[in-house]
Write a structure and sequence with these properties.
Layout (H helix, E strand, L loop, with lengths): L33 H13 L19
Length: about 60
């Protein structure tokens, strides 16, 4: 039994690029290009994406003496 290209199930569903909403490319998934991938990485490294956590008072600091 041979599968024609029209009957082959894709490995993952097609999604839009989270940066520019163009269709994603397999080699840069989930992004469409190396540029969008780099933009997202820069946002993570610069602290633009922040996961909120409990606030810590300055005098507590988390250090034990």
């Amino acid at each position: 039994m041979t599968n024609s290209p029209s009957t082959v199930t894709p490995l993952r569903p097609k999604r839009r690029c989270p940066e520019c909403s163009r269709p994603s490319a397999r080699e840069h998934f989930p992004f469409c290009s190396e540029r969008c991938k780099a933009v997202d990485l820069n946002r993570w490294l610069s602290g633009s994406y922040v996961i909120p956590g409990p606030s810590v008072a300055p005098d507590e600091g988390g250090e034990e003496r």
